[in-house]
Predict the structure.
Amino acid sequence: NSSAARNGTERSNPSAKDEQVFKGLLSYGEKLRNTVADDPGLEPLRLTLRVLLRIAQHLRQRPGDVEGALNRAFSACLRFLPPSSQEAVNRMLVTAMKGAGAHVEGLRRRAATMAPDEAESRSRRQELRELENVAIQARMWGGGGDIVDQAREKSERERAEQHQAKLEELRRSG
């Protein structure tokens, strides 16, 4: 036992908060397994033994830093998901942790995704609603297809420009 203490491999008893965290993680893992069937893009965020060990090690070194442990474990995969998937994973994780009695604010988003701020996101949703309305009207009354095509092309152009801007930003920062 003393040799284990010298080697730093002695196990400590988990705190009640750590137990809440791991119960929340198990609940998150179960929800994620069910969700991955519908959205395979979330597969990299599944809970593996390696991820659980990484979280446990972080909590052992920094007790109480639950959000830091979660961000460290998931940030590499999370940053390359689209914002809607990031939000879904974040909600799943916060809900599971809250259900287990552990409070977390959620995962931080990294600059690589350049997640839109709330105003930009609201603006994008409004633009998509308008496009959907035009498309619905075009289908219902015929004609207007050129308007839908122009709007789609404009949207695709803007998306490509945003993608190029993100890549340039990554190249400059990396």
